[in-house]
Amino acid sequence: MSVLVDTSALYALLDRDDQNHEAALAALPALAEQELITHSYVLVEAVALTQRRLGADAVRSLTQTLIPGLAIVWIDELSHAAGLAALLAALPTAVSLVDMVSFHVMRERGIEGAFAFDADFRSAGFVTIP
User: Residues 8-51: pLDDT tens digits?
Assistant: First the structure.
């Protein structure tokens, strides 16, 4: 089974002060048998957030330790357009373009679960882990 990894989970793993840090660490053993997938928009978002909030060492940890263990879907023009169309249809909404693209990737690939602490995934009908 595949699980999509969201920015919220990556960040929680990195930031010891994040309210979800312990839950993220505790979820890792259950995820060990899963194919962990993310996409290029999550990578951009995660690197930017980590750089801004945690600094250079955390960015190195993210890019050299966490990301190499993930299968990466590179977002193409069609997937971008699908995510943008979903965002525009949902406006006004607090759901980000990155999350809309995540939902598209998940539906396209039949992924039912997300390693995420973002309630938007549950609202969109997906299971969140933990």
Answer: 999 999 999 999 999 999 999 999 999 999 999 999 999 999 99
CA 25, 28, 114 angle in degrees (round to 5)?
Answer: 105
Give CA separation, 35 vs 2, 30, 59, in Å. 5, 11, 23
> Could you give the domains of the chain?
2-129 (3.40.50.1010)
Those residues whose C-beta lies under 8 Å from the C-beta of residue 110, and which sit 6 or more positions away, are: 2
Q: Are 20 and 118 in contact, with CB atoms under 8 Å apart?
A: no
| Predicted model pTM | 0.95
